[in-house]
Amino acid sequence: MKRFIFLFFILCGLLTESCSKNDSLINEPPKETPSTDNKDDDDDKEDTSNGLKVLCLGNSITRHEYAPSIEWFSAWGMAASKEENDYCHQLERMLCQQRPGSKVTPLNIADWERNLSMNLNTLLDQHCKDKDVIVIRLGENVEDKTAFKTAIGRLVSYCKKQAKHVFITGCFWKDDEKEAAIKQAATAYGIPYVDLRGIDQVGVTRPSTGDILYDLDGKPYTITKDFIIAHPNDKGMKRIAEEIMKAFLLHIKDDETAPSYAARSFTLDNPQTFVFLPASHTATGRAVVVCPGGGYGDCKPEDNYEGNGWAPFFNERGIALIVIKYTLPEGNCQLPIADAETTIKRVREHAKEWYVNKDDVGIMGFSAGGHLASTIANHSTGDAHPNFQILFYPVITMGAQGHAWSRENFLGKNPSTAQMELYSNEKQVKTDTPRAFITFTEDDTEVPPTVNGKAYYQALINKGIPTKLVSWQSSNGWGAGHGWGNLDSFVHHEELMSQLSDWLKSF
After folding, report:
1. Tens of pLDDT along 160-188?
2. CA 306/CA 502 separation, integer angstroms
3. Degrees, nearest 5: CA angle 159-164-167
4. Angle, helix 145-162 to helix 176-189, in steps of 10 degrees
5. In what order do the strands lie in the sheet with 361-366?
6. What confidence score (pLDDT) does residue 19 get?
7. Which among 394, 400, 402, 382 is positioned nearest to 460, based on CA atoms?
8. CA-wise closest residue to 143 among 76, 59, 67
9. What is the pLDDT of residue 396?
10. Phi-psi region of 27 (alpha: psi -120 to 50; beta: other; left: phi over 0)
11. Is 459 in a helix, a strand, or coil?
12. N or C terminus of the chain with fewer C-beta within 10 Å?
């Protein structure tokens, strides 16, 4: 049995040959070759025992029947130039390199998108029989977004009863509301989510008017209809196939009797980080890097309310948690910054084995750790740039009205005006600063929200950055209104956890 751990980039350069002569999608008749030696015929047969039967549920991107009324003279995924270039056929070729004899079957159920109450058993039963994998790639034609949130869950639930593996992709056309519903369904039912955001690019992964397609007889014709050019071209189809194949490589193993990775926890050094991974079958691909608080004079991940104790909350939601014990600056601010950047890069470097999506890595910080997190969110670039930020009662400003102890530990006793300005993160927000969740109490006397959390929130809003603010007028006597983290003794604990959970599901 061939190993199912081939390096993915090799797949993209492989010859676009059929799975086998017997399973060819082009349906060329097999050629008979006379035997020239005494070997058994079985010696020359391709091993197809590891092949997978895959059903792709989709709309016109998956398959559109011949429709001359709209000047579509083909019968495969719109707008691939030829049948072998749509994503289902490209996916089949990629898959067959790992599992010879695999078969990918496209099924257009666009009618379901327009009538979300359709009977699923009537629609799908006969098509799901004997399938090992079902890929759900739908949503573009949905008009009732409210009903879609429930209907997509029903579809996922139905498919899980029909096949051992179910995958769901996002939409080709950007729609944040539909995307959130799809991701929520993936999380709720514990199936892998395949992110297709960013693939749709006019002039790159879409065709243009005048481009050449081929009809059922192999004759060329030119695209004239806007309806057709809204769909992915050969390059767009390839990108879709590649993303689905990546998910297959992560979640489908050679030995199907072997258990998937259970929840795991381990410690890494340089910097010391505590890694908590959810079970692989529940992993959503999301990861959160945590910076505990301590005024830059202390950092204790083992203090569970701001560190390791967050693992159950995130892991139960399929999210990996990585907690940093960053180097204390003692006036050299680059030390904790470097540790945080290294950790985010490390998560992305280990994305495959940790079941993490490189484009879904966030940073979370408490108090001074919130300043470190917001610093990374606004100053770091490339692989060190997070995709979202979560800030609990954060230190934000390095100005005179800010938290003096944090400022002294971070910048030294006599920082320059330029240094304080540079690391006053309410002044550093940019258009690419990631979305944020911010929480604090109004009666925080240690880190006053007015010049910290509130100021940062307003700066984000002014730049059009999606931001959720959760604040309370009073901490009801909790210390100085500061430092409650995830302690259930905090009077607003349950509401806070609910708000954070809902926010994490929203994108």
Report:
1. 999 999 999 999 999 999 999 999 888 87
2. 20
3. 60
4. 30
5. 264-268, 272-277, 320-325, 287-291, 361-366, 388-392, 435-441, 467-472
6. 39
7. 394
8. 59
9. 98
10. left
11. helix
12. N
Alpha carbon distance 68, 213 (integer Å): 13
- Using an 8 Å Cβ cutoff, are 56 and 137 in contact? yes
3-state secondary structure string, 89-158? HHHHHHHHHHCCCCEEEEEECHHHHHCCCCCHHHHHHHHHCCCCEEEEECCCCCCCHHHHHHHHHHHHHH
The whole-angstrom separation of Cα 234 and Cα 106 is: 16
List, in order, residues 6 or more apart from 438 with CB less than 8 Å away: 391, 394, 453, 456, 457, 467, 468, 469, 470
Structure-block tokens of residue 415: 């920082």
**Which residue has 């999301």 as its token pair?**
286
Establish whether the linkage from the previous residue to 271 is cis, with ω within 30° of 0: yes
Return the DSSP state at 426. G
Beta-sheet strand order (sheet of 53-58): 103-108, 53-58, 133-137, 165-169, 193-194
Q: d(Cα 501, Cα 506) in Å, to the nearest integer?
A: 9
User: Domains (ranges, CATH) in the chain?
Assistant: 14-26+48-251 (3.40.50.1110), 264-505 (3.40.50.1820)
Cα 507 from Cα 435, distance rounded (Å): 10
Q: At 304, is the pLDDT very low, low, confident or very high (cuts 50, 70, 90)?
A: confident
pLDDT value at residue 37: 40
Residue 317 CA: distances (Å) to CA of 32, 187, 190, 263: 55, 7, 9, 12
| pTM across the whole model | 0.53
Burial of 239 (0-12, 13-18, 19+ CB in 10 A): buried
Strand partners, 212: 222
Is the pLDDT assigned to residue 2 strictly greater than 50? no
Beta bridge partners of 265: 276
**Residue type (1 letter), 92:** E
Q: Given its phi and psi angles, is residue 367 left (phi above 0), alpha (psi -120 to 50 degrees) or beta? A: left
pLDDT of residue 48: 53
pLDDT of residue 3: 44
- CA distances (Å), origin 455, targets 394, 450, 451, 452: 11, 6, 5, 5
C-alpha count within 13 angstroms, C-beta hemisphere, residue 223: 22
- Going from the C-alpha of 383 to that of each of 361, 367, 380, the distances in angstroms are 10, 25, 9
Give the model confidence (pLDDT) of 197-232 as tens digits: 889 988 899 999 999 999 999 999 999 998 899 999
Q: Which two tokens stand for residue 4?
A: 């199912």
User: Which helix (H) or strand (E) is 55 found in, with range?
Assistant: strand 53-58
The 10s digit of each residue's pLDDT in 226-276 is 889 999 999 999 999 999 999 999 888 764 443 456 788 888 989 999 999
